[in-house]
């Protein structure tokens, strides 16, 4: 006769979560009616629109950073056990991580006052991006190095974002008594973001296993990229990289696309048409800038969308040669408008001493992507031409979103490029 041992897993009552949620909700929305302080609450109309815009942008960046840090904390021993790490090794990994926080994190805190807090926040995002990409591409990543990078990133998070906010608050001339509102909102949004990161990570790894861990790593990569490009100079850099990638892919694949299925085409006469279309787009540019009420960013939104649609149709919809040539000409005409428009925006947003570095660094990932797809598509034949052109269309569509965000952030002279 067998003995059945019943086991139970204790869980908090669901009403506890409901109570906490509604308590927070009531506390926030009743604050304007209960406060007796002379300083205005963040919900009152007396607060300047520029301060509200500054606080909204900062809290968005801060929330994204909180989610990045929170996703990794969900895995813990579960991830390490998947890599075959023993309990003793786990303790040593934690020791190494806290040692890195003690030595490297403290040093970076002192260095941040010299090089600038904004650069430290960028390093925070790059560390998470590096760990996410590394774990996504490597079957057995080094948990030691990952622990060091994430520990250093955690140290940067603890001081750089707050210091950056205070410095920008003062530089933009906002009232000092408004800082307390941002302080409590930082902690409030951090807690909410951590809850969201737990829900997201648990959703991605709900059934366990390395495959679902890889999905969570992809989420951290996406969040890190969003955090990095949510700054004016990085929005422009991403758009420049997308343009370079799409132009390179179209230049490589336009001829194979036209002669597919054995169609006979006089390529020597078509190529000048493409260059002529690009020249026509460049000739239209001064008319658009001087004769239109649209801002350069707004004009680029539409131009990126049109060019992306042209490439997308070429990639996934079989057309006659005449239609394909027309779509290629439309794409090159859009490029003729996009290139001088991006140069104009760089003059507005990028300091001259950073211009060359910004352009070269933005071309580096585009060239790396072209190299990768040449190997995977042309040499190993693991990726089709349609998929490659489809990715370039996605890059153009996302560049349109970057220009929309750039417009929403508002025009700032390049002397204030470090601001949100």
From TrEMBL:
Show the stretches that span the lipid bilayer. Answer: 16-35, 56-75, 90-111, 143-161, 182-201, 213-230, 235-254, 266-287, 299-316, 322-342, 354-375, 387-406
Recorded GO CC terms: membrane
Show the Gene3D superfamilies listed in the entry: MFS general substrate transporter like domains
The source's superkingdom equals Eukaryota
Q: Keyword set for this entry? A: Membrane, Transmembrane, Transmembrane helix
SUPFAM superfamilies referenced in this protein's UniProt entry, alphabetically: MFS general substrate transporter
Report the InterPro entries cross-referenced here: MFS_trans_sf, MOT2/MFSD5
Pfam families in UniProt: MFS_5
* MF-aspect GO terms: molybdate ion transmembrane transporter activity
The name on file for this protein is Molybdate-anion transporter
Instruction: Name its species.
Output: Punica granatum (Pomegranate)
């Amino acid at each position: 006769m067998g003995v059945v041992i019943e086991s139970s897993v204790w869980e908090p009552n669901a009403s506890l979560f409901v109570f906490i949620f509604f308590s927070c909700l009531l506390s926030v929305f009743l604050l304007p009616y209960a406060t007796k302080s002379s300083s205005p609450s963040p919900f009152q109309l007396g607060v300047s629109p520029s301060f509200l815009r500054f606080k909204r942008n900062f809290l968005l960046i801060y929330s994204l950073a909180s989610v990045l840090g929170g996703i990794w904390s969900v895995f813990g021993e579960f991830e390490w056990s998947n890599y075959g790490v023993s309990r003793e090794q786990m303790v040593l990994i934690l020791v190494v991580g806290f040692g890195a926080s003690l030595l490297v994190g403290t040093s970076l805190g002192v260095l941040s006052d010299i090089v600038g807090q904004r650069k430290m926040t960028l390093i925070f995002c790059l560390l998470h991006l590096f760990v996410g990409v590394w774990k996504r591409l490597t079957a057995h990543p080094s948990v030691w190095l990952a622990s060091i990078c994430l520990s250093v990133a955690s140290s940067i998070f603890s001081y750089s974002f707050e210091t950056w906010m205070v410095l920008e608050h003062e530089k933009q001339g906002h009232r000092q008594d408004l800082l307390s509102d941002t302080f409590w909102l930082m902690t409030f949004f951090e807690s909410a973001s951590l809850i969201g990161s737990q829900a997201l990570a648990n959703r991605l790894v709900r059934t366990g296993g390395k495959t679902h861990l890889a999905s969570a790593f992809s989420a951290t990569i996406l969040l890190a990229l969003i955090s990095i490009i949510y700054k004016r100079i990085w929005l422009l850099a991403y758009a420049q990289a997308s343009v370079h990638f799409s132009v390179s892919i179209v230049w490589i694949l336009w001829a194979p696309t036209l002669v597919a299925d054995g169609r006979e085409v006089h390529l020597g006469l078509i190529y000048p048409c493409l260059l002529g279309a690009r020249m026509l787009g460049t000739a239209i540019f001064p008319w658009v800038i001087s004769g239109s009420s649209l801002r350069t960013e707004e004009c680029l939104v539409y131009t990126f969308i049109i060019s992306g649609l042209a490439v997308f149709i070429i990639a996934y919809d079989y057309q006659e040669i005449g239609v394909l040539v027309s779509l290629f000409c439309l794409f090159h005409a859009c490029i003729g408008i996009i290139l001088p428009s991006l140069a104009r925006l760089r003059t507005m947003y990028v300091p001259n001493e950073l211009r060359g570095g910004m352009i070269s660094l933005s071309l580096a990932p585009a060239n790396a992507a072209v190299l990768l797809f040449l190997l995977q598509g042309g040499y190993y034949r693991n990726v089709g031409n349609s998929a490659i052109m489809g990715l370039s269309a996605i890059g153009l569509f996302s560049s349109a979103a970057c220009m929309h965000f750039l417009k929403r952030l508002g025009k700032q002279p390049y002397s204030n490029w470090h601001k949100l």
